[in-house]
Amino acid sequence: MTSTTAPRRRTPVWAKILLVLFVLLLVGAAAFGGLSVGKALGATEERDVQVIRSITREEQVVLLTAGVADLKQESADGLSITIPGLDLIPGLGTWEFDVPGSERQMLIRYDFDAKIGIEGKDVKIERQVDGSYHLTIPEFIYLGSDDPEISVASESNGVLSWITPEIDKFAIVKEVLSEDSVAKTIEGARPVLEEQARIFYTNILTAIDPDIDLEFTFAE
After folding, report:
1. Sheet holding 124-127, edge to edge
2. Rounded to whole angstroms, how far apart are CA atoms 74 and 174?
């Protein structure tokens, strides 16, 4: 009895071509996907760099100019005289007294525009897990003044005031234009300053990414 072996069926050429095309499509899709992910990651990193650089500045940032006007009274005590050596007289000892009419008084009127803002280099920014950015704004500070007007509103000196040193007007001006003199102005303008800081940095960052999500924290 003779047995015969069935001939092996050969894979059609068109099937091989389809298989090769399928493999090529898979490889192409994987490469395209990797490229797309790489581009997305690269775009995110580039945006982070742009965002951070855009708010990194060494100069001071003026957020508000506030008018400050008030009156300040200064006085200088009259000449004080001490006469020692009266210990020989019972109950007297050293004798001290102020010379009547030697005192001085001065009323200063001041008016200036105080520039209030922040140190730009102290602003911190952090990228959050959800893709938003958190900005920490430093304390608001006095950054100087514009157009100071300081004058003597009135001056009252005793008849013997010539023996008392004159009141130092330059020291008064320095004190008036100091940071301590506008501390109350800064505190009273805090809501406006915070809003100005939000607007300032939001405008900068939305120019890079219009859909950027920002959170702000302000130093006390």
Report:
1. 124-127, 133-137, 214-218
2. 13
Within 56-182, residue ranges assigned H as helices are 169-176
Predicted TM-score (pTM) of the model is: 0.60
Reported as a single tens digit per residue, the pLDDT across 105-159 is: 777 888 888 899 999 889 998 888 888 889 999 999 999 887 778 777 766 665 4
Give the CB-side neighbour count of residue 116, counting CA atoms within 13 A.
28
Percent of residues, the chain, with pLDDT higher than 90:
15
User: Would you state the structure tokens that stand for residue 206, as one six-digit string?
Assistant: 């939305």
| Domain ranges, ordered by start, for the chain | 13-55, 57-74+105-157+165-218
Contacts (Cβ under 8 Å, ≥6 apart) of 76: 103, 104, 105, 164, 165, 166, 167
